[in-house]
Amino acid sequence: MKYRDHKGSLSDSMDTVIDVNSPSEIISHLNKFYNQFGKEVGDIKFEYCGFDDRIGWDTYYVLVRLNGSEEYRINGMTDGIFS
User: Would you call 14 helix, strand, or coil by DSSP?
Assistant: First the structure.
């Protein structure tokens, strides 16, 4: 599966594409960013967004909840979900 960070433009976002094999790999990737601010990912979930003709992905939002927070926010996208 492919994962990309949410950025200001599609081009910038596509520059961050990585291959992942599990939700824990996405969490590890995200924690590389959040740990430098003393934060950590508490949970992620996926929400179907739709088909993106520009890149040929069935796109799913990756919603992230940081430890100590109750809110989820969009952090990136995948081209599938884990069962």
Answer: helix
Q: Identify the helix (H) or strand (E) that includes residue 33.
A: helix 23-34
Q: Do 74 and 6 touch, CB atoms closer than 8 A?
A: yes
Strand order across the 73-78 sheet: 18-19, 2-5, 73-78, 57-66, 41-52
Burial of 55-71, coded b for 16+ CB within 10 Å and e otherwise, reads eebebbbbbbbbeeeee
| CA of residue 67 relative to chain centroid, distance | 16
- pLDDT tens by residue, the chain, 83 residues: 999 999 999 999 999 999 999 999 999 999 999 999 999 999 999 999 999 999 999 999 999 999 999 999 999 999 999 87
Nearest CA to 55 among 23, 24, 9? 9
